[in-house]
Amino acid sequence: MRLDGSISAVVTGGASGLGEATARALAAQGVKVAIFDLNAERGEAVAKELGGAFCSVDVTSAESVAAGFTAARAAHGQERILVSCAGGGTSAKIIRRNRETGAIEPMALDRFTKIVHLNLMSAFQCAAVSAAGMASLDPIDGERGVIVNTASAAAKDGQIGQVAYAAAKAGIVGMTLPIARDLASEFIRVNTIMPGIFATPPMLAAPEEMRKSLAESVPFPSRLGAPEEYASMVLELCRNGYVNGEVIRLDGAIRMPPR
């Protein structure tokens, strides 16, 4: 797909980190970008800088997602590119021992569900709504649209305490090929990126010693990934019309240890 001012895009989680870098990279190509995020102050600032649109969207709410796409399309027309970067999680083992009582407690189902909803179900919901709109378009150079989802190295190398997050990201990996096959007849491509350890705001907020140790654990190059490198991969997946149904690790060859 060509990237220019005739194309519009939606980037979820676009107010910071991988999403912000992606929004900036697309806008640098002339693409009209709508940012979905809950951080209105930062999202509006980035959108204004890029000449784009900001939509306050809670990706875990079907109503909020639908309203966000309606607003984005009112500003820029039907998007041909969707990049889902929204997500996150907290660490918790499937069982824990209460330090005070010694009781063994299972992880609460709602805690697991919350992480799966934020990462997996939101990506599915955004892809479904976006694809329904893309399918109404006339093809350009043989395709109507491109969807890029964000998984994680945790999808393959889930660490201790990452059962919910790893399950959610593995779900994104698992739905990539079926969605690509579902949308093949509509001329819409779907791919997924599995980032390793990137220099996103949560990571940059970690102690320097921890960041240094994590960087050294990456085989080569032994550093944290730059959000711009993720964005560069997104651009290639948009441009290269023969990449479809693919999951790409972007991690410096790291394979995460148990902890």
Biggest beta sheet summary:
7 strands, parallel
**Could you say what the CATH topology is called?**
Rossmann fold
N→C terminal distance: 40 Å
Number of domains as seen in the coordinates: 1
Counted beta strands: 9
Q: Level of helix content?
A: 40-55%
Record the strand order, biggest sheet: 3-2-1-4-7-8-9
Secondary-structure element order, N to C: EHEHEHEEEHEHHEHHHE
What's the average pLDDT?
96
Structural class: alpha/beta
CATH class: Alpha Beta
Shape: globular
CATH architectural category: 3-Layer(aba) Sandwich
Instruction: Please name the fourth-level CATH homologous superfamily.
Output: NAD(P)-binding Rossmann-like Domain
Strand fraction band?
A: 15-25%
- Please give the count of helices: 9
Identify low-pLDDT runs.
none
> What's the gyration radius in Å?
18 Å
Q: Can you tell me about this structure?
A:
The strands form two sheets. This protein has a seven-stranded parallel sheet, with helices on both faces. A two-stranded antiparallel ribbon has the order 5-6. It is α/β, with parallel strands linked by helices. It is 45% helix and 17% strand. Helix 3 packs parallel to helix 4 (109-134). The longest helix is centred in the middle third of the chain and has 26 residues, at 109-134. Helix 1 links the parallel strand 1 (8-12) and strand 2. It has helices at 17-28, 40-50, 62-76, 109-134, 154-157, 163-184, 201-204, 208-216, 227-239; strands at 8-12, 32-37, 53-56, 81-84, 95-97, 104-106, 145-150, 188-195, 247-250. The protein has one domain (8-250): Rossmann fold (3-Layer(aba) Sandwich). The termini are far apart. It contains nine helices and nine strands.
